[in-house]
Amino acid sequence: MMELLLPPPPEYCPPWMMPAPVPSMYGSMSYLPPPPPYTTIKPCLSQQALFSAEGAEHGRRLVTPQLNGSDPADKPHTLEDYAVDHFRPPPKRTMSRSITLASARRPGVETLWRYSREPIKQPLLKKLLQKEELAQESEILRDEIYCQMMKQLTDNRNRLSEERGWELMWLATGLFTCSQTLMKELSQFLRSRRHPIAQDSLHRLQKTLKHGQRKYPPHQVEVEAIHHKTTQIFHKVYFPDDTDEAFEVDSSTRAKDFCASISHRLNLKSPEGFSLFVKIADKVISVPEGDFFFDFVRHLTDWIKKARPSRDGSTPHFTYQVFFMKKLWTNTVPGKDRNADIIFHFHQELPKLLRGYHRCTKEEAAKLAAYVYRVRFGDSKQEFSAFPNLLRELVPADLIKSLSTSDWKKNIQQHYTQDAGMSPEDAKIAFLKLIYQWPTFGSAFFEVKQTTDLNYPDHLLIAINKQGVSLIHPATKVCLGSKYFLECFMLFNGNTYFHMTIGNLVRGSKLLCETTLGYKMDDLLTSYISLMLTNMNKQRTLRK
Questions:
Q1: Principal place where this protein is found (predicted)?
Q2: In 3-state terms, what secondary structure has residue 132?
């Protein structure tokens, strides 16, 4: 969940200071407030304070000003020369009978390349005239957006209007670039401005050029950050051991980069196999490593809102949390990466054991329970006095009734005594080394229902791991069938059903299965196959 330390929001804007619209980067209108009205009588001091530069910045925390120009005497770059060849002709003005003082001060011909109070009703670029069908991905439309922003930031003497214009520029430079023709103008424009956001916008533009353009509008977190002049965004990430840490992310951070940053901070041997997961509503979805982090969260949030509209018609509000966990267990060997074992592997494998997904003997269960007890309580034996209430937190659910409570306590205490002096961290690794011997180690288990094949029970346990896909009897834990990824075919239909073929497409077993976690199965299978193909290509390259 995003947690930012932000200053209080700006004060209420009076009706007469309502903004004048300018086109935003996504076709809708953004608004920049107009300059204050002219008066014939000098206002009182309290009214003058509303228009002062200090009042405009009240409640704002600005970034430390940095000069972008090489010389204080440098003239800020404008689009005046560029407009001659690329902008549409300015509209002709008609003389009205009533001439106000404000209108008399305006130039006879509208200057398209500088700030204007009037809404921009037509594109600035000649190439965009009469081309309303162009969408966001069009380069010429991106040029139009940047031209309009630079225009409104040229000779704009209204401080609040200028501030909001720079906020929009900061957001845009982190989302998309412009054409090579305009890039020189945009870069010079940002370099020659003294506004504190200008340099950061130039840096964001260069990162966007390097890392690629975003697919979706900015996330609300990005909008709130720049609105409060906080150009650094820290995002909280949760781990399986119930700890969390904050990591810096920006508009160009992809999931793969985010994972590498977390892996480095936690001193993991490698980020391979790990993934970010976003938990929103009742779904936990893996973030594709090639996606921009904020793009994925924005798209996922919008999708949830459309799929679950509120009954009263209001916009639903969904919060989310980000988790970092092991997803692919292809090269996982207990003891090879101690930090990964302690923070991730143990805490992700323990719930699977307690739910009774693994095929486990009573002797193995007692030994594993002793390790779990030591992880939780160390060398303290006092908790054995409340053992009946503790049993379900130590022993697999399907084995609890196989022995009496006193027998379980006796066997677990015996193994606990044999490992006297072992640290909780070493107990986690010993726990993993025992489970590693089972074929279901590192599996993701899915409970499904099928009624098409009488050779299988109505309820099945499907395990997906580095070996492929296995069908397991939920009661006996006997493997009913196991195939490698390329020998198993799944076709997902809607949110609750999927067809599964084990073996040959013609003679193989065909099942119609029901589950609400089909999206997870689909993603996991795709990820394992992708990793398998990547490793095969690497081996071929090494052989050459």
A1: cytoplasm
A2: coil
CA atoms within 13 A of residue 403's CA, in its CB half-sphere: 19
Print the SS3 string covering 261-330.
HHHHHCCCCCCCCEEEEEEECCEEEECCCCCEHHHHHHHHHHHHHHHCCCCCCCCCCCCEEEEEEECCCC
**DSSP string over 188-244:** HHHHT--SHHHHHHHHHHHHHHHH---SSPPPHHHHHHHHTT---EEEEEE-TTS-E
pLDDT beyond 50 at 53: no
| Predicted confidence (pLDDT) per residue in 499-535, tens digit | 777 665 556 677 888 998 888 998 999 999 898 888 8
- Specify the CATH number of the domain 233-326: 3.10.20.90
pLDDT tens-digit map of 224-247:
999 998 889 999 999 999 999 999
- Tell me which architecture the domain covering 15-92+108-227 has in CATH: Alpha Horseshoe (1.25)
Tell me yes or no: is domain 444-543 CATH 2.20.25.110. no
Instruction: Give backbone dihedrals phi and psi of 461, rounded to 5 degrees, phi first.
Output: -115, 115
The predicted pLDDT at position 506 comes to: 55
| Confidence check: pLDDT of 384 > 60 | yes
Nearest to 165 by CA among 213, 123, 201, 129: 201
Residue 417: pLDDT above 90? Answer: yes
Say how many residues make up the chain: 544
State the architecture of 338-435 in CATH terms: Up-down Bundle (1.20)
**Which residue's structure tokens are 């099945």?**
460
> Cα-flanking dihedrals φ and ψ of residue 481, to 5°?
175, 140
**Rg of the chain's alpha carbons, rounded to an integer?**
31
Pairing relationship of beta strands 29-32 and 233-238 according to DSSP bridges:
unpaired
